[in-house]
Amino acid sequence: MTTATVPTTPAELASFIDHTLLKPEATDADVVALVEEGAALGVFSVCVSPTFVALAHQTAAGRLKVATVCGFPSGKHVSSVKAAEAAQSVADGADEVDMVIDVGAAKAADFEAVEADIAAVRAAVPGDRLLKVIIESALLDDDEIVAVCRAAESAGADYVKTSTGFHPAGGASVHAVSLMAQTVGGRLGVKASGGVRTLADALGAIEAGATRLGMSGAAAVLAELAGQTPAAPSSDY
User: Fold this and answer.
1) 3-class DSSP string for 137-195
2) Taking the domain 11-225, which CATH number applies?
3) Annotated active-site positions, please?
4) Which of 37, 48, 108, 189 could cross-link to 52 by cystine, CB 3.0-4.6 Å?
């Protein structure tokens, strides 16, 4: 993977975006609307909860990729359960799986456990499907971020990702994205997610090294880049 060029058009920026809907109260109708909006915007993928993968896959009909989450949002799931969840999502049509690490293991400096957890999910996600590893960067110090990124790479992940967007500690920061990008050195992608709500947020993350963005307010940000009056962005990621 290589460092991304900062986009200058809505179409270029859209190609970075995982158009996201992970609200627990989301309905089938919401997911269908998300996919249709994502296809119209030209985003790379939609990211939905595991229960909606089959519906999103059917609705997308090859127009965009379908991503989902695993062990979400706490990461405090037994590795075999995460692996089973990931395998079911792949069977339902997921092209990409974004798994949450056990952040407590990282805080305890048990990076072997972090790597083993990721490896268990990687074994359940075929090589032709992407595995992204959510590290919840706002909870980690710099040394922990580096160590977790290295564990993800060793375990065979394709991307490291900043945040679930559900933890009160916060979401993506330019510093975290930059440090993650430096650590993986272009060998893995870097996804910035959580709090990416404006055009400045999106471009700042890409300038720092993000190669993918998780956003629920894509329409507003793309409209802003196009010079249109943006709608109020969503606060849910």
Assistant:
1) HHHCCHHHHHHHHHHHHHCCCCEEECCCCCCCCCCCCHHHHHHHHHHHCCCCEEEEECC
2) 3.20.20.70
3) 98, 161, 191
4) 48
